[in-house]
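Changelog-adjacent note: as of this version, every example in the card shows the full chain rather than a window. The one below runs 75 residues end to end.
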Amino acid sequence: MSKVCDLTGTRPLFGNKVSHSNRKTKRRFNPNLQKKSFFIPETNEWIKLKVTAKALRTIDKYGLYEYIKKLECKC
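Full-length structure tokens:
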């Protein structure tokens, strides 16, 4: 299962885990992905998406259809 948001395209970031003694080892910062079903009233259908928690909050604020239109304008 890929760890990529279907809407924003957010991927895992890479960095260092730093111990108390300042040793550094590689680690991954995974995005907070959630599986969610959305209903689109304009097309009268349900879709399943893997989205980040941040994208879910924005969808709650604007609605899915408006959020997708906003994403298309940025690209």
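Structural remarks: The mean pLDDT is 92.
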